[in-house]
Predict the 3D structure of the following.
Amino acid sequence: MPGKPLRAGSEHSGKFIFTTHNILHLDLKKYMKEQIYFVTKDRETLDSELYSLIDFPEVRYDTAKVYEFYLKGILGATANE
């Protein structure tokens, strides 16, 4: 039952994380912009940055082929990182 604790003294507040290397899953017909995140790594410091697709206003819901933006490097994280 939603909202009911799974066991005594704890509440369920988990998240589902789906990670993939298949860029064809970058589809706004299946996922909301707020649900798609990218990780990019600085080659010198090896620091990683996590950011959402919502940070890119040029990507609209009528632009279902997010993977094309990704391949062009517009979204920051690139396939060779």
